[in-house]
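Standup notes
- DV: blocked on the single-chain target, sequence here:
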Amino acid sequence: MLILTTVLTTGALTLTACGSRDDDNTSSGGDTQTVVIGLDAPITGDLSALGLGMKNSAELAVKTANKEKTVPGIKFEFKALDDQAQPSVGQQNAQKFIDDKTVLGVVGPLNSGVSQSMQKPLNDASLTQISPANTGTELTQGENWKTGDKKRPYKTYFRTATTDQIQGAFAAKYLFNNAKIKQVYLIDDQKPYGAGLAASFKATFTTLGGKIVGTDHVNPDDRDFNAVVTKVKKSGAKAVYYGGEYPAGAPLSQQLKDSVQIPLMGGDGMYSADFIKLNKKAQGDIATSVGKPVEELDSAKKFIADYKTAGYKDAYEAYGGGTYDATWAIIEAVKIAVTENDGKLPDDARAKVLEAMNKVNFSGVTGPVSFDEFGDTTNTMMTAYQVDGGKWTSKLSEAYKP
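- DV (later): unblocked, structure below
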């Protein structure tokens, strides 16, 4: 009988299957070998609602793999580190994962800016990284992707979330064609995620014939946006598109509606129940998010039921299904590496798991899971949501390519 215990260490939550662990990837439990899957996310702070949903979903995948003995002879452990949505902390966490030789894959982070600080050290260590939330296009296709010069910067980086190129274009198309809004004021928080999303939105929206009636930048730590709201009101905009996340997006929306009754639209960083909790005037606001709502997917029924049974007090939020799939992708890669090595972990386990990631192909919570030559998900499903009656309601889901 496998007994799971939870060990709380400084900055980390580790799910430990009974049996000691040593540095050659082998536990003391006879022929059973130990593999650790790490997770980096903002478990505390303003974005913790999303980070905790990621942590719980990844942990659930690890527990399920152990319960079902998905990889015979392998016992999985889970190690979660809190990056506080700070790139410097994410980089420190990357090094902690690298130093633990039993870690064969890292799930996360939430923020594209944090990922930029983690990619190179993880790549240098041949340690697989897969994010369910990063959408910055340059992370997989390089800084020159806009000119068509796409080059994968890091072979170790994968994601189950689609790119800002796709998300921004999808948002622009939805606002122009479905919401029938032609005049938009564009605001971003100057962070890699927000700025990239806003740029992608602008490119497609203007191509469709929409007009950007004004642009501005805000500090994501600010909560007083009256100065920019005044500019929006004078511009004649029919909507605001905000490239950023819900901690600033919620008060921006509320202050906007105190002055002018137009909706605020954003990306997946806005699609959280906390956006509505923080914003008394969220009615009518719009957000896009990667994938189709898991509640509408037959493939997600078991995940939802298992998550409920596990008793997590935090919701799985926007990235729960994608995080489960990201974690399971590493589990599948470990299975391939072990199977190809006569049922044992190979000596060069990190390199072999990384090699196996390119072969991963399975039916996941969010649908088919596989990766293209850049490490991007082949699933480009996007959904537009609108706040109605105090909750996010899905309006349109489709597989989208610019």
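- Follow-up: Confidence is low (pLDDT under 50) at residues 1-29.
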